[in-house]
């Protein structure tokens, strides 16, 4: 372990500062090579990542270990019982969860079965009403969705053996991107299913309901074997406890000129626009293009996160700019229409790999993003708006990094202080990454987290 004090910042680097479960010393040859290459880089990255702006009172950074995550499986981090639980995939092909209490890593657990190295295998976390946690994970388009649960509340001390979700839509595309959410006293699980479309099932007493499709991507493109395949929508989800909110695009940003859409899922009823117009009933999936349009079509466009505040949805997304970079946009519904605001742009050496933007779901006028730094690397920043997107304040979480930083998130349900998680290193592809998972505790109050005024401002209409 290496601990360095730099001003008001403490950085702790540890290869394994906690229990990581059985088989922790049995590494694959590939992972061992990756760790040897990355070890000096990890220490340097942890030190450079520690630099904060003077407005931050104090911080502590920990490197949880080699790993990362995909963008479309959530929640990736949850705060409950005074602890934070973070899910990621490691460089051995296993899913992992870390348990952290106010900056102290208590333990980590590794879940099998082992898969090929792929950042899509990160687990998504559900907090049960009694405080136990469930973890949903799968191989990328794998044949099974695995489910494990803790045996004790707010603790990884003991975890059940894996069970498998017993339902899926027909097709050869398996399971990807689990999203467990609780609405109307039921557990809903969303994923991309066998038919390559957004699917869902609901946990009712004693069983899971039959898999249903939520919405359908446009037809069609031709597969290598000559068959036609619908485009696959990419979706992000949130819940307000009663209803579920979803944003999605028609397809992959590299294969389709996407628009950004929204729908409210009312359990036992149907899909609705933000103004309350019914789109379709559940069980009768509409075309994605029939959902509530947030923003019109553009190249390189992807919906990246969704949350609600005061009963109204907020969506963040990225799109290709006129100069080839990725623009970050923030959209909110004011009760009558969607208002879209541009934050900033980011540029990447690897097409589409770095431009990252997520909402703080507890204060969704706050976003975490990666921006271009003065050192030529991508840095993590926190942006907040006091007026619903018109103006923004920004704060750096990293600066002068020697490696790129990717896909920051903040734990769901955390309000008492600020924590952020991201991964850092080299990533060129979802199967080619040599990165470390970084956790940061910021003990300072959220000075930038102001309340959104949903009625202020009248930006130019952009569709």
If you had to describe this structure to a student in words, what would you say it looks like?
There is one protein chain. This protein is mainly beta and 463 residues long. The protein has a single domain (2-442), classed as YVTN repeat-like/Quinoprotein amine dehydrogenase (Methylamine Dehydrogenase, Chain H). Helices cover 5% and strands 45% of the residues. It has one helix and 35 strands. The strands form eight sheets. The chain has a six-stranded mixed sheet with strand order 1-2-3-35-34-33, covered by helices on one side. The model is unreliable at 1-57 and 445-463 (pLDDT under 50).
Identify the notable features of this structure and list them briefly:
disordered N terminus; mainly beta; 1 helix; six-stranded antiparallel sheet
Quick structural gist:
With 463 residues, the chain is mainly beta. Helices cover 5% and strands 45% of the residues.
**Mean pLDDT across residues:** 85
Order the strands across the largest sheet as they lie in space. Answer: 1-2-3-35-34-33
CATH architecture tag = 7 Propeller
- Poorly predicted runs are 1-57, 445-463
CATH class: Mainly Beta
Number of helices: 1
Oligomer: single chain
Return the structural class.
mainly beta
Number of individual domains: 1
The helix content, as a percent range, equals under 10%
Biggest sheet character: 6 strands, mixed
SSE blueprint and pairings:
Elements: E1 2-6, E2 9-13, H1 29-49, E3 59-66, E4 77-80, E5 83-89, E6 95-101, E7 104-111, E8 124-127, E9 133-137, E10 146-149, E11 163-164, E12 176-183, E13 186-192, E14 198-204, E15 207-208, E16 212-213, E17 221-222, E18 228-229, E19 234-239, E20 244-249, E21 258-266, E22 270-272, E23 278-281, E24 292-298, E25 302-309, E26 312-320, E27 326-333, E28 338-346, E29 357-359, E30 366-372, E31 378-384, E32 393-396, E33 404-409, E34 418-429, E35 432-442
Parallel strand pairs: 2-3
Antiparallel strand pairs: 1-2, 3-35, 4-5, 5-6, 6-7, 8-9, 9-10, 10-11, 12-13, 13-14, 14-15, 14-16, 17-18, 19-20, 20-21, 21-22, 21-24, 22-23, 25-26, 26-27, 27-28, 29-30, 30-31, 31-32, 33-34, 34-35
């Amino acid at each position: 372990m290496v601990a360095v004090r730099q001003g008001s910042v403490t950085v702790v680097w540890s290869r394994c500062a906690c229990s990581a479960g059985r088989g922790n010393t049995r590494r694959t040859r590939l992972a061992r090579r990756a760790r040897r290459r990355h070890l000096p880089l990890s220490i340097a990255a942890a030190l450079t990542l520690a630099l904060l702006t003077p407005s931050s009172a104090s911080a502590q950074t920990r490197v949880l270990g080699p790993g990362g995550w995909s963008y479309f499986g959530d929640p990736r981090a949850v705060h409950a019982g005074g602890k934070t639980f973070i899910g990621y995939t490691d460089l051995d092909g296993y899913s992992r969860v870390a348990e952290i209490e106010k900056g102290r890593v208590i333990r980590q657990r590794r879940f099998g079965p082992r898969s090929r190295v792929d950042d899509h295998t990160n687990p998504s976390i559900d907090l049960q009403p009694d405080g136990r946690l469930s973890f949903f994970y799968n191989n990328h388009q794998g044949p099974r969705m695995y489910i494990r649960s803790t045996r004790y509340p707010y603790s990884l001390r003991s975890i059940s053996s894996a069970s498998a979700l017993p339902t899926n839509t027909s097709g050869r595309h398996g399971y990807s991107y689990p999203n467990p959410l609780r609405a109307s006293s039921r557990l809903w699980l969303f994923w991309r299913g066998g038919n390559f479309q957004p699917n869902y099932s609901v946990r009712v007493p004693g069983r899971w309901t039959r898999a249903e499709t939520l919405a359908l991507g446009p037809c069609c493109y031709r597969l290598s074997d000559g068959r036609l395949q619908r485009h696959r929508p990419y979706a992000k989800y949130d819940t307000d406890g009663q209803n579920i909110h979803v944003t999605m695009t028609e397809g992959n940003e590299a294969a389709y000129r996407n628009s950004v859409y929204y729908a409210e899922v009312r359990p036992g009823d149907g899909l609705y626009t933000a103004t309350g117009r019914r789109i379709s009933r559940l069980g009768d999936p509409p075309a994605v293009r029939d959902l509530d349009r947030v923003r019109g079509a553009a190249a390189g466009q992807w919906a990246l996160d969704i949350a609600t505040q005061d009963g109204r949805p907020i969506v963040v997304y990225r799109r290709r700019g006129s100069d080839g970079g990725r623009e970050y946009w923030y959209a909110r519904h004011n009760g009558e229409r969607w208002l879209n605001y541009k934050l900033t742009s980011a540029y990447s050496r690897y097409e589409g790999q770095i431009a990252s933007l997520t909402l703080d779901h507890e204060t969704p006028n706050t976003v975490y993003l990666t921006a271009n730094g003065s050192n030529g690397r991508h840095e993590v920043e926190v942006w907040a708006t006091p007026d619903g997107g018109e103006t923004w304040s920004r704060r750096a979480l990293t600066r002068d990094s020697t490696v790129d930083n990717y896909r920051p998130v903040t734990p769901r349900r955390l309000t008492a202080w600020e924590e952020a998680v991201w991964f850092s290193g080299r990533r060129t592809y979802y199967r080619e990454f040599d990165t470390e998972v970084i956790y940061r505790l910021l003990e300072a109050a959220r000075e930038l987290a102001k309340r959104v005024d949903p009625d202020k401002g009248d930006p130019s209409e952009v569709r």
